[in-house]
From TrEMBL:
InterPro entries named in the record: Acyl_CoA_acyltransferase, GNAT_dom, GNPNAT1-like
PANTHER family in the cross-refs: GLUCOSAMINE 6-PHOSPHATE N-ACETYLTRANSFERASE
Lineage of the species this protein comes from: Eukaryota, Metazoa, Ecdysozoa, Nematoda, Chromadorea
Transmembrane segments annotated in the record for this chain: none
Domain N-acetyltransferase: from-to ranges: 19-176
Protein name as it appears in the record: Glucosamine 6-phosphate N-acetyltransferase
Pathway membership: Nucleotide-sugar biosynthesis; UDP-N-acetyl-alpha-D-glucosamine biosynthesis; N-acetyl-alpha-D-glucosamine 1-phosphate from alpha-D-glucosamine 6-phosphate (route I): step 1/2
Top-rank taxon, per record: Eukaryota
Length: 189
C-alpha cells in the first residue's frame, strides 16, 4: 500500500519481540485482516476480488492518502492489529494537509499489551513526517482516556456531527458510476 521504508525503526520505536509493524499488503486478505476489522465494526461480505480492488484504489491515490499499518505476529503470520492514517489534502493552511486516524483495532486476545499505543505512536509519527497541520480521530467515550494518554485532547468548542447511511448510494471504484438504491416509499420518509 505504501513503502515499508517509511516504517523505519526510528519511526516505529520499540516493537515487542514476536511482532512486526508494516504496511497492509494484498496477501493480508489471507492473514485475518477482515476478521480483525470485524472486531471493530461490521465488515460485510468482502470477497477477495472486492478486497484487491479496494486495496488498489487506496494504494493508487496520488499523492498517497491512505496508510494502513498492521501488526503481524511472526509466529503465526496472522494480523493482530491495524490502524489507518488518512491524509486529507487542503487549500487552507498554505495548501497543507490534515490527518485522521481511522479503524484502530487490536485482536481481542492481544489487548492489554500496549499494541494500540504502538499503532497510535506510529501513525502520529507518520503524520508529523508528512508535515500535517493537525491530526484527529473519532472514538467511543470509553476510549477517550486511552487517547488522552497518547497525546490527544478534546477540541473544546468544536463538535463532531455525523449522518449515517445504509447502503443507499454506491460509487463503483472501477467506473465511477453512481448506483442508487431502490426508491423508498414517501410514507417511510
Amino acid at each position: 500500500m505504501f513503502s515499508s521504508a517509511l516504517l523505519s525503526s526510528t519511526l516505529t520505536g520499540d516493537v515487542p519481540e514476536g511482532f512486526v509493524v508494516r504496511p497492509l499488503n494484498i496477501g493480508d486478505y489471507d492473514k485475518g485482516f477482515l476478521s480483525l476489522l470485524s472486531q471493530l465494526t461490521r465488515v460485510g461480505d468482502v470477497t477477495r476480488e472486492n478486497f484487491v480492488t479496494r486495496f488498489r484504489t487506496m494504494a493508487d491515490t496520488r499523492p498517497t492518502s491512505y496508510y494502513v499499518v498492521v501488526i503481524e505476529e511472526t509466529s503465526t503470520h496472522q494480523l493482530v492489529g491495524s490502524a489507518t492514517l488518512v491524509l486529507e489534502w487542503k487549500f487552507i493552511h498554505a495548501a497543507g494537509a490534515r490527518a485522521r486516524i481511522e479503524d484502530v483495532v487490536i485482536r481481542h486476545d492481544m489487548r492489554g499489551r500496549k499494541l494500540g499505543a504502538l499503532l497510535n505512536r506510529v501513525l502520529v509519527s507518520l503524520a508529523k513526517l508528512f508535515g500535517v497541520y493537525k491530526i484527529s480521530l473519532e472514538c467511543k467515550d470509553s476510549l477517550i482516556p486511552f487517547y488522552e494518554l497518547n497525546g490527544f485532547k478534546k477540541d473544546e468548542g468544536n463538535n463532531f456531527l455525523v449522518q449515517r447511511f445504509d447502503k443507499d448510494i454506491t460509487i463503483s471504484p472501477t467506473n465511477d458510476t453512481l448506483e442508487t438504491a431502490p426508491e423508498v416509499e414517501q410514507s417511510k420518509i
